[in-house]
What we know:
Blueprint: H1 9-26, H2 35-40, H3 44-47, H4 51-59, H5 71-76, H6 83-92, E1 100-105, H7 120-123, E2 132-137, H8 141-145, H9 150-167, E3 171-174, H10 181-184, H11 188-193, E4 200-202, H12 205-215, E5 222-226, H13 231-242, E6 246-249, H14 252-261, E7 270-272, E8 280-283, H15 289-293, E9 300-303, E10 317-318, E11 324-325, E12 344-345, H16 350-353, H17 356-363
Parallel strand pairs: 1-2, 1-3, 3-4, 5-6, 5-8, 6-7, 8-9, 9-10
Antiparallel strand pairs: 11-12
Amino acid sequence: MVFTGTGSVVAFAEYVTYIDFMNNMGHCNFELIPKCLFRWFPPLKYLFYTPTYNSLHHTQFRTNYSLFMPLYDYVYGTVDKSSDELHESSLRREEESPNVVHLTHLTTPQSIYHLRLGFASLASKPHTSKWLQTWAIPKYTLQYIWEWQKESINKVIEEAILDVERKGTKVVSLGLMNQEEELNTYGGLYIKKHPKLNVRVVDGSSLAVALVLHSISKGTTQVLLRGKLTKIACAIASNLCQKGIQVAVFSEDEYMKLKSSFNTKSRSNLIVSRSYSQTTWLVGDELSKEKQRKAPKGTSFIPYSQFPPKPYRKDCFYHSTPTMLAPLALENVHSCEGGVNMSVDTPCSTLTRFGRQLLHMAFNLSQFPTRQNCSR
C-alpha cells in the first residue's frame, strides 16, 4: 500500500474488527474455545490465542508475550508450560449453581450506554462463587407489547426456568415485564405446565403488597380502589378488609370479582361506592386526568402498579410505586429502574441488590396472602 499509494477500506475495517474481537475475547475471564478446534485445525493453536492463554500473560512472569498470535512464543520459547493444561482444566470445570437467579430483560438498545464496562465488586473477588446470578431475556421492552412476540418470550422464559431447575437452583425471580398477567399469569403458566418443578418461581408480589399497606396512613377507615384488579390489587383489598378497613369500588363487576376471592368475614367491608369522598385512593395503571379531578382536595394517590400515574393535581399527594430505600451499607449499586432514584429499589428487582434478609421477607409474608383467585 505504501509503494502503490492505494489502500483497502474493507481490509482496514476487517483488521480493526478482528483486533477488537480478539482483545475482548481474551479478557472475558472464562474459557470458551473448545479443545477439539485445535485438534481439527492444528495450525490455529499458533495463530489464535485463548482466554486462558492470555490469563497466564497477566499472572505469570515473562511468559505468553505474543497476544492474538502465540506463534512467536513457541518460536522463542516463552510459552508457559501450563498453557495447555490450564486450557483443558478450565473447560472441564463444573458450572456454578447459584441459589437464586433473577430473570430480567432488556429495556432499549440505547440503555447499554448507561451500564458500566466492569463491576468492581466482582473483579475484587474473581474466584469467589456468588449465591445469586442475574440472567437477561434477549427481548426488549417494546417486544413485550407485540402480541405475536408473546409466544417466543414465554418459550425463552420457560427454557430459562427449566435450565435453573437442572442446575439445582432454589429460587428464580421474574423481572418487571416477565411477570405480566397477560403474558404468563404472573408465572403461573410455567407452574401449571410443569407441576413437579422444585425451583420456586416468585414475582415479588407479597413484598409489593406489604409496601402498599405500609404506605396507607394510620387511622384510615376507608379507601377507594381504582384500577385493574391484578393479583396485587386483590391481595391488598383482602388484607384491608380483614383489618376492618372498608374498600370501595365503583363497578358491580369489580365488587363480584373481589367478593369471590374473599372469606366470609371480610366481605362485609367491601362496598360499592357512588361518591368520591374517600381521601385515600389505591390506583393502578392509566389513572386518567378526568378521574383524578373527581378526587377531593388532599387525596393521597397510592399506586400498586409498576408505573405511577401522571400527576395532574397540585392539591393532592402522589406516592411512588411500591419501593424501598437501599440501606446505607449497600455499595456498588450501578443502575436504577422505572424512573426511581439510585438508592431506591422496586420489589421485582429486590432480589438482585438486597441480601438474604429481604429475600426471606418476600417469601414469608404470610399475613399478606397474594394467591387469591380473581376470576375474570
